[in-house]
Amino acid sequence: MEMLNNKWIKARSHIGVIVTSTLVFLMVSLNASALQQSTLVDSIKQIKPSVVGIAMYAPIQSRSPQLLGTGFVVGNGKYVVTNYHVVAKELDPSIVQNYVALSGSGPSPKIHTMEVLAIDPVHDIAILSINDTLPAVKIASDELVDEGTSIFFTGFPIGAILGLYPATHQGIVAAIAPDINPARNADQLTVQMLKRLKTPFFIYQLDATAYPGNSGSPVFNSSTNEVIAVINKVFVSEGKEAALTNPSGISYAIPVRELRKLAETIDIKL
Question: Which residues are listed as membrane-spanning (predicted)?
Answer without folding.
Answer: none
